[in-house]
Amino acid sequence: MNYTPHTERDIQHMLNAIGVASTDELFAPVPESLRLNALNLPPGISEMEATAFVHSLTDRETSLSFLGGGAYDHFSPSVVDAIISRGEFFTAYTPYQPEVSQGTLRAIFEFQSMICELTNMEVANASMYDGASALAEAVLMAVRLNNHTRVLLPRSLHPFYRRVVATYVRGIDLELVDIPWSDSGTLDIAILKRELTDNTAAVVVQNPNFLGVLESLDEIGDLVNNTRTAFIACVNPISLSAIRPPGDFGADIVIGDGQPLGLPLSYGGPYVGFFASRDAHVRKMPGRICGETTDVDGKRGFVLTLQTREQHIRRERATSNICTNQTLCATAATVYLSSIGPQGFREVGELNWHQSHRALQALTALDGVRQKFSGPIFNEFVLEIDRKASDVLTALQHRGIEAGIDLGRFYPTLENCILTCVTEKRTDADIDRLIDAWRAL
Amino acid sequence: MNRDKLIFERGASGRRCVAFPAAVDSGTAIPETMRRDVPPNLPEVSELELVRHYTALSQMNFSIDTHFYPLGSCTMKYNPRVHEKAARIPQIAGLHPLSENAQPALQILWEMEQVLKAVSGMDGFTFQPTAGAQGEFVGISLIAAYHRAQGNAKKVVLIPDSAHGTNPATAAICGYAVQAIKSTERGTVDVEDLKAHLTEEVAGLMLTNPNTFGVFEDEIEDIAALVHDAGGLLYYDGANLNAFLGQCRPGDMGFDVVHINLHKTFTTPHGGGGPGSGPVGVKQALLPFLPLPVVLKEGNAFKLDFDRPESIGKVSSFYGNFGMVIRALVYAKMLGAEGMRRTSEMAVLNANYIAAKLDPHYDRPKNAQPMHEMVFSASRQKKANGITATDIAKRLIDYGVHPPTIYFPLPNVAPETMLIEPTETESLEQVDDFVEAMIQIAKEAEENPDLLKEAPHATPVRRLDEATAARKPILRFKTNNP
What we know:
CATH superfamily of the largest domain in chain B: Type I PLP-dependent aspartate aminotransferase-like (Major domain)
Largest sheet of chain A: 7 strands, mixed
Largest interface: A-B, 203 and 200 residues
Number of domains of chain A: 2
Oligomer: heterodimer
CATH architecture of the largest domain in chain B: 3-Layer(aba) Sandwich
CATH topology of the largest domain in chain B: Aspartate Aminotransferase, domain 2
Largest sheet of chain B: 7 strands, mixed
Structural class of chain B: alpha/beta
Number of domains of chain B: 3
Number of strands of chain A: 15
CATH topology of the largest domain in chain A: Aspartate Aminotransferase, domain 2
Strand order of the largest sheet of chain B: 1-7-6-5-4-2-3
């Protein structure tokens, strides 16, 4: 099955118009030595067979999941997928021609506005690929702002995000400094203070951090705000329903992954990075930005703007090489936030807070299960047990439950620790099922 | 309904769409210093208001579903609905990236890797890049890692002057100096100019083939030999792979690293500007440097391999845009070997038909036979009546056609360019309608140039003041109520 509409008659008509005898002649510019007789692939199949293939892979029970760690199982209202399934949104491309792209442009403008609202920042871009690359771009932007040469990264930063930052800064001379966590699971402020030297380009803080623990953004802001060092905060946007945003504490750049805002888990992507900053820094920002203007009749309209920062104009002097980003995912997040509104957002935050704390209380009441870190948490927490985390997790998997992430995968010293996440979707019955299964081990 | 409003300007304070069950108090309160007391100013609308608003927005877009969309270099072909259905199967859409029950996802990644290896002639792929530009970043990072491992300090990446802006931007981000190579009259790489630039400092050459004029680089084998002899590597920008899918392979041409845009050649939807997917493939010698993890097949099981000490690291939060990979795999399976050949044949046929029909009416800056897309210029119309590529593009909108890519290739390479890529999924009737519109516009340019200069006429907004937008940026909605 292929999607070409040409009949034999059409083909003949077109070949005649071109003045060649066969389509093969049109490939004459390809040297004979390079021409393939056939691809080493099976013959095509029908839609029915393709559908059956996908179902054959996926025909299995799903587990009850308490996994988080950068990707979260939140409720997405039906309108979100309904809107982004409209062909006018998902089969359009980058709004290069604003007169016929006002739908996409307005959705982007709304997205930028909502990200500013969530983070309490002044300006946001049209989206980045995901949270990790948004952080990497934030670090590169900090270096553009102050030309300093070292960046402080918490050990409690998502380990995959750390790897992405390291890969992105390879082309410039930048020292990445590791800041450990304290006993409570928060950034070790004393070490942060010591490492915050004059040539520090940025302090990165993840909130909540990879251990689920909420940081004292006020303390960190106080340390960084009167220096030329950039304060970069990486946040879970759902937490901003209940927790004060980094914009309140003088953050220079706030980034994160918008996946929790109505996007499916989809084995890690597509997600959407968001990127917010201060008006003063806007010309140093990476990525596309949509702005409001008027047309020749004075009517309000929207365009991609400040494009002299970008690769298609500035080429090797661009602020980033980003081009295609994640517009449809940004549109989904915009519809999600519009559908839940300020009240629904507060409710989601409260549900995450209380369901996770109730699960934490029930779990730590079990024999041999302790809370590893004493710092406050939002919807994820670390449990410490008396044996290897993987033993318990595997046993629970056999009972159809994914109880959390084995932290030994990322930190050898935490091989007895499990990172467990409880979103608003995990009901009391789900928590009871986890407790019963655990007790039965 | 007033179609001009933003979602913030609709609804009323206290109005609701989605609500959640009440939380049961856990007895633990949010610490006061951390608790958010000022809620974000989000819209307060009913579900119907919301649906009407976004439906109205969608109707302000041109899209493949609604209009012919010959946006050159972007391969705007039909996006099959079966792909959407496959990606939304709950066991796929609901699969957590750190789940231990991920065999189906790993099999999908592995199978798509086999497809891309067969199509490209490369030895292994990563799916981590989420777009073409990130693919370029990975590709050039791999080349840098390869040279470092050989103990070579290379400093320069060569790029044709007609290349896409992401190419030089990428090379610069990876720490390389960029040198431009001239194009010939035919639009291909000027081999003499290439020779003059090939020193031992050169890490590699980035090339799109067919190039951005839609012309096949027929000296590619000689070019590859020259670059390799000088100790450099060859990078293939797969933006234009649709031109020769199933006919020939970048791996056989001598390319060492390739990126393929699944959102172009493998028709995953463009989404208004993403999500895309830009998998990167390499030859054997560069396999150790691929981003981690890679998917391995052991017996009938699949696993993620993180134990790769020479890897360049990671570029995305997890494994890239997996949701795009499953769409592409369904497409590849349905097409099969013959369907892929047919795809490129019809893409090239449609493009050459348009070129033949429009040649009498517009200048074509490079006279070589195009493949799947071609560059026309408004230079004749500009000289005669002051009509620019922009004017023609905007007038096409009145005819119900999304404009081609304009001013790419850039004005310093060719003037007033219009890059037209019809793709293989358009019918003869549609292509004829487009040709007719372009011929009509060429006539209007002579007889009534103002009609073009004032176009478009019937869109929700007309030409927009981009200069003011950049000079006095308004980048977010601000409420009047504090």
